[in-house]
Amino acid sequence: MSDFVLVERPRPHVALVTLNRPERMNAMAFDVMVPFRDTLAGLSRDNDVRVVVVTGAGRGFCSGADQESPGRIPGIDGLTVSTIALRSMELLDDVVRTLRRMHQPVIAAVNGPAIGGGLCLALAADIRLAASGDAYFRAAGINNGLTASELGLSYLLPRAIGSSRAFEIMLSGRDVDAAEAERVGLVSRAVEPDGLLDACYELAERIVGFSRPGVELTKRMLWAGLDAGSLEAHMDHEGLGQLFVRLTTRNFEEATRARRQGRPPRFAD
Ligand SMILES: C/C=C/C(=O)SCCNC(=O)CCNC(=O)[C@H](O)C(C)(C)COP(=O)(O)OP(=O)(O)OC[C@H]1O[C@@H](n2cnc3c(N)ncnc32)[C@H](O)[C@@H]1OP(=O)(O)O
């Protein structure tokens, strides 16, 4: 479908989906995210697939919004800048939604940095395993002069690790390494990088051995239990806040420039 998204079947009934833009640390360019979302939706409908593992090619899991070549989303010709921004946010929200709605359990094999939207992707998976020493997490919207509350993060992170830690991590923009991620429950296990995929497959094979409706309904009920409010409504609120800061400041441009120049960003607003 796209060279940016690879699909393999490493074990019976197990699909491995790899974000494949290693030179950009698998940033969320639209021409990566559209096939990623469509691939996931297709696998969800594939009755032969009982577990999906998601990972990143190369050194990164996913480096969040693409700051170099974000690409274009389909069907935006003739729209205003504000509407294009809205559609962009909706597309990325849709990726999170698609992950959440998959029939099958999704295991994130976090092989390297999961930054900004990349952290959101990991959190939208049902289970997370991380490569010790290589994986780390950052709620990077805040580092970019935006909000860290995007793509469900302010909904998903407190539910995963509790509100005290979520507030601290989202407001500090600091890195959380794999060891800490395991300790605070952001991932269920940190494993040696070489054994990461095998650990995911081992877990997947266990799940494949159980009743399909038993597994699907357990997943659904776990999420239903966590959904005290509604993720849909929450993402709408988050998206509006993020768009407001994105469109009314030049902070993201400054953060991109600063990263290219290897200096800390200076936000005017
Ligand atoms: C709605 C969603 C919003 C968000 O997601 S906001 C978050 C936006 N993302 C970020 O702020 C992350 C920015 N990137 C970084 O902080 C670092 O990078 C990493 C932690 C991901 C990795 O650091 P290191 O291991 O030192 O690698 P490297 O040399 O910085 O990056 C390798 C190559 O990957 C490109 N790259 C990294 N992140 C992005 C990105 N987000 N968009 C586009 N390209 C990216 C770089 O430029 C470089 O490329 P070259 O080798 O050509 O210099």
Automatic annotation (TrEMBL):
Q: Name one GO molecular function term.
A: enoyl-CoA hydratase activity
**Which EC number(s) are documented for this chain?**
4.2.1.17
GO BP annotations of the record are: fatty acid beta-oxidation
Family matches, as Pfam families: ECH_1
Stored CDD domains = crotonase-like
Keywords per UniProt = Lyase
Family classification: Belongs to the enoyl-CoA hydratase/isomerase family.
Q: Which PANTHER family match?
A: ENOYL-COA HYDRATASE ECHA12-RELATED, ENOYL-COA HYDRATASE-RELATED
Mind telling me what this protein is named?
Enoyl-CoA hydratase
Organism classification:
Bacteria, Bacillati, Actinomycetota, Actinomycetes, Streptosporangiales
